[in-house]
Specification:
The protein is an alpha+beta fold. It has a single domain, classed as Chorismate synthase, AroC fold, CATH 3.60.150. The chain has eight helices and 18 strands. Helix 1 runs antiparallel to helix 8, helix 3 packs across helix 8 and helix 6 runs antiparallel to helix 8. The radius of gyration is 21 Å and the shape is globular. The chain binds flavin mononucleotide (FMN) and the ligand C=C(O[C@@H]1CC(C(=O)O)=C[C@@H](OP(=O)(O)O)[C@H]1O)C(=O)O. The ligand C=C(O[C@@H]1CC(C(=O)O)=C[C@@H](OP(=O)(O)O)[C@H]1O)C(=O)O binds next to loops. This is Chorismate synthase. GO terms for molecular function: chorismate synthase activity; FMN binding. Its EC number is 4.2.3.5. It is an enzyme of class 4 (lyase).
């Protein structure tokens, strides 16, 4: 499946080592002011080649809007966006084209399709997230019209944990450092953890949290199409995400009901005194901030020798993955996590009729 969403739909296309990657957004209401600069700002947060903690591949990721925008506003027609790949180098993939990279998508693709684009992982490359971020940029702009904001930040990298941060810290600080951590005192230790792994030819993972503010109560469905189920699917659908929790998530299993339930009160509107549920009950938003966390695994492509197989000769082999890889996917994934949450919320806003065919 290359299409996501039911009412606000995103289709992405393109391979990491092909000529371009792109996206088509269908179902965006007409009249939304949007320009290439809005999309570029989000792409600039995602692109590789920004310092030692990310892949050295140097992509400017310049967006061209091809359709669906006229005189600075969406027309209600499909918005097609293109980014050309300019720093493609497949040389490090040639020697391993018949070897399966442990932890990457190589074997799954081969088992399903019978052959695969071995150059940079093709569609399984993290580069595919360019399309998600372009779609997410439009979703974010649409949501801002309804007073909804989406903010992600790094909670931990490997064994280095950020301290407690406030929502204001997250809104203010997430992009002032390369690891995108709102606890600025933890940034150096997080970068060091990534650099230590990189120097040893290894990689590290971590946890990213995303918060959506201003989401009205009543988004989502009670049985199928639950908002929490859609968010979990969207976040789990990002490469390298191995766990998703909403509110206290897995930590809720250790609590009693009295420790988990959020008590209600009235403050002009219905609110809860705590937000352990993460802003969703019964599949429907409560009006409290929506809070999700994702567990990001360590980057699979590492240069430490590993045992694998040569699928052409069907015999054992040793692989050392060279090339330009992220020593940690965590700093790269923060804008992608925001994009996926924005896409789900925009989809539900349009689905629920809170946003019509025109603004
Ligand atoms: C933004 C982003 C950047 C990534 N960078 C790399 C990378 O440099 N090298 C790598 O091996 N995997 C990288 N990945 C992870 C792989 O794409 C992913 O692990 C692979 O597709 C297998 O999917 P799975 O881990 O979800 O099973 C990245 C993922 C994302 C989302
Ligand atoms: C190019 C990007 O990230 C890439 C994600 C990736 C992977 O295997 O997922 C492998 C590396 O690239 P290549 O395909 O050239 O080996 C990363 O640089 C990007 O995010 O724009």
């Amino acid at each position: 499946m290359n299409t996501f969403g039911r009412a606000f739909r995103l289709t992405t296309f393109g391979e990491s080592h092909g000529p371009a990657v792109g996206a088509v957004v269908d179902g965006c209401p007409a009249g939304l002011e949007i320009c290439e600069g809005d999309i570029q700002a989000e792409l600039d947060r995602r692109r590789p080649g920004q310092g030692a903690v990310t892949s050295k591949r140097s992509e400017p990721d310049r967006v061209e809007i091809l359709s669906g925008v006229f005189e600075g506003k969406t027309t209600g027609m499909p918005v097609a966006m293109l980014v050309r790949n300019v720093d493609v180098d497949s040389s490090s993939y040639e020697p391993i084209k018949d070897l399966l990279r442990p932890g990457h998508a190589d074997y799954g693709y081969l088992a399903k399709y019978g052959f695969r684009d071995y150059r940079g992982g093709g569609r399984s490359s993290g580069r595919e997230t360019v399309g998600r971020v372009m779609g997410g940029a439009i979703a974010k702009k649409l949501l801002s019209r309804a007073g909804i904001g989406v903010y992600a930040h790094t909670v931990s990298i490997h064994d280095v944990k950020a301290g407690e941060v406030t929502l204001e810290d997250v809104i203010k600080n997430p992009y002032t450092n390369r690891v995108r951590c709102a606890d600025l005192s933890a940034v150096r230790a997080m970068e060091d953890a990534i650099m230590r792994a990189k120097q040893e030819g290894d990689s590290v993972g971590g946890i990213v949290e995303v918060i959506a503010t201003g989401v009205p109560a009543g988004l989502g469905s009670p049985v199928f199409g639950k908002l929490d189920a859609d968010l979990a699917g969207a976040l789990m659908g990002i490469g390298a995400v191995k766990g998703v929790e909403i509110g206290l998530g897995f930590r809720s299993a250790e609590l009693r009901g009295s420790e988990m339930n959020d008590e209600f009160y009235v403050d002009g509107e219905v609110k809860t005194r705590t937000n352990r549920a993460g802003g969703i009950l019964g599949g429907i938003s409560t009006g409290m901030p929506i809070v999700c966390r994702v567990a990001v695994k360590p980057t699979p492509s590492i240069s430490i020798p590993q045992r694998t197989i040569n699928v052409k000769e069907m015999k054992d082999a040793i692989i050392e993955v060279k090339g330009r890889h992220d020593p940690s996917i965590v700093p790269r994934i923060v804008p992608v996590v925001e994009a996926m949450v924005a896409l789900v919320l925009a989809d539900h806003m349009v689905l629920s009729g809170k946003m019509g065919p025109r603004l």
